[in-house]
Amino acid sequence: MSYERIFGSGPTGLAGTFSLWAAVYLLGEWLGIPPIGMNPTVLMVLLWFFIMDFAVTVIWSLLALPVLERGKKLVISGPYRLMRHPFYAAFIWSGTGVAAVWLQSWLLIFSVIPIHFFWVWHIRNEELFLLEQFGVEYKTYMEATGQFFPILRRDKSK
After folding, report:
1. pLDDT beyond 90 at 63
2. Is 108:45 a contact under the CB 8 Å cutoff?
3. CA atoms of 80 and 87, how far apart (whole Å)
4. What percent of the chain shows pLDDT beyond 90?
């Protein structure tokens, strides 16, 4: 079992994500950007929404693609029928939401954009590995699904 097959871009990508969150939060503090001034109940509801979305997506991803199956067969069911990297997407979208609401940081909300592009860049080798491993099947899957967000189409025949 190779590290790449088991973990992909996950550990280094998560380290980069946590580093970006910390840097953006500290930048906001340094610049004196005021905290999110929202009703505490609304903030709590948002926080729980992001936490639940994060937990469901991570657990569903891990159940759909167990460690021993990684890199052996192409899983396109469960959350993987919607997007290619739901585990990473949970950190990009919901993880950033949790961090932004928890720390009440406006700047963290907007950090989702550079974090998304960081992940697009960061998983290039993982996608190449999967193309080598699964060939045309993965290429077809790439065309049918988004990396971190479902492709929304009106015409399902495409």
Report:
1. yes
2. no
3. 9
4. 76
Domains of the chain and any CATH numbers: 19-144 (1.20.120.1630)
Terminal C-alpha separation, the chain: 36
pTM of the predicted model as reported, rounded to 2 decimal places = 0.88
d(Cα 128, Cα 8) in Å, to the nearest integer?
A: 11
- Residue with structure tokens 């993965």? 138
Report the amino acid identity of residue 81. R
Cβ-Cβ contacts under 8 Å for 18 (sequence gap 6 or more): none
Grouping H, G, I as helix, E, B as strand and the rest as coil, residue 11 is helix
Q: How many CB atoms lie under 10 A from the CB of residue 87?
A: 22
